[in-house]
Amino acid sequence: MMMMMMMMMMIMMMMMMMMMMMMMMMMMMMMMMMMMMMMMMMVMMMRRRSRRRRSRNRWRRRRRRIYRIMETIVAEYIWPQNK
Q1: Rounded distance between C-alpha atoms, residue 70 and residue 63, angstroms
Q2: For the segment 8-59, what is each residue's pLDDT rounded down to a tens digit?
Q3: Any idea what the Cα angle at residue 70 is, between residues 68 and 71, rounded to 5°?
């Protein structure tokens, strides 16, 4: 009888340990998934921000080019006609 009780206790302990291990593994997997999701979000945000900055720079460059062209037109054609 005592031996059976000991065996039962051992089995129960083993089951508990297995359950704990499984829970830990699940928690670790969840943590890993969360970390991966966070990393993906960060990468997406950085990419979006850099793209926005790049487009803004492109617009600024285009605007500068337009202003330079307008300046040359004014300097070459309109000034001599006024004089």
Answers
A1: 10
A2: 888 988 888 888 888 888 888 888 888 888 888 888 877 776 666 666 666 6
A3: 60
**Helices in 1-83 by DSSP H: which ranges?**
2-73, 79-82
In this structure, which amino acid lies at residue 47? R
What is the distance in angstroms between the CA of the first residue and the CA of the last residue of the chain?
Answer: 121
Q: What tokens appear for 24 in the block?
A: 């830990």
Token output for 83: 């004089």
12-27 b/e (C-beta count within 10 Å ≥ 16 → b)? eeeeeeeeeeeeeeee
CA distance 49 to 74: 37
